[in-house]
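Message: Study each token:
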Amino acid sequence: MNEQKHLSGRAWVELILLAAFWGGSFLSIRVALDEIGFLTSVAHRVFWAAIVLWGVVVVRRLPLPRGFAIWGAFLIMGLLNNIVPFSLMAWGQLHIESGLTSILNATTAIFGVLLAALFLADERLNARRAIGVTVGFIGVAIAIGIENLRNFDLRSIAQMAVLAGTLSYAIAAVWARKMLSSVAPEVAAAGMLTGSAIVALPVAVLFEGKPTLALQADTLIAIGYYALVATALAYLLYYRVLASAGSGNLMLCTLLIPPIAIVLGAWGLNEALSTNAFLGFAVIALGLIILDGRILRILK
């Protein structure tokens, strides 16, 4: 079952910092997409992040994985947790606001609870979780807009692509629990990103041409941010928060990311979200709060 620990002051700071790292990724990715293709943006993200994380593995002298089976698991994890969601969300951001992308991204936790109940014996879907999942999906429908579900256009497809990315994240979490639980987290992250780079680089070259660093300064800064800070450093911080705060408290990070991304999108991209998007996020947040369960226990 998900572990929920008491949060120290330091854990709160790290949790908020992690949310800020990930919240800023939506703005930086959208900035980079003004000059590079979405597949190339993914290739940059996983390649540079993999190099950084292998450096961490070497410095910490962590044991390296051996055998085809574990590298095959890394490759599948890279597809599920990086290639598919990064590509779908980057493409989606070409057609919808970065703030709305972050709102829909919050459904990762909702899909995660549902899939864990289906595939993991210790994660049963009790009444509270079922209500939380249902409320969360109602919030998704509100955020997308019923009219957009009826009139299927490019914007609607982009929102569906982002949701498909969050589903892939949730599948990856189940895969990691089953196949990578015995591997050191830093090694698992480095291996996963290596598998991602092996796929992303040739795909980017095939469809968008050879990646280059002869780019505008703001594009290079954006790539540096989402590859090194929002991916490599964020993974390291994620595992630190997981160890100190427990998996249950990571739900709070999910709640913090969209407000950060929305503010940054309004500031950096002059985005203005619809009332439906804000109302949808409020309902999604309510679903996450129900899944979290701590407020309900306090109210008893």
Remarks:
- The CA atoms of residues 12 and 245 lie 8 Å apart.
- The first helix runs from residue 9 to 32.
- Residues 9-299 form one domain.
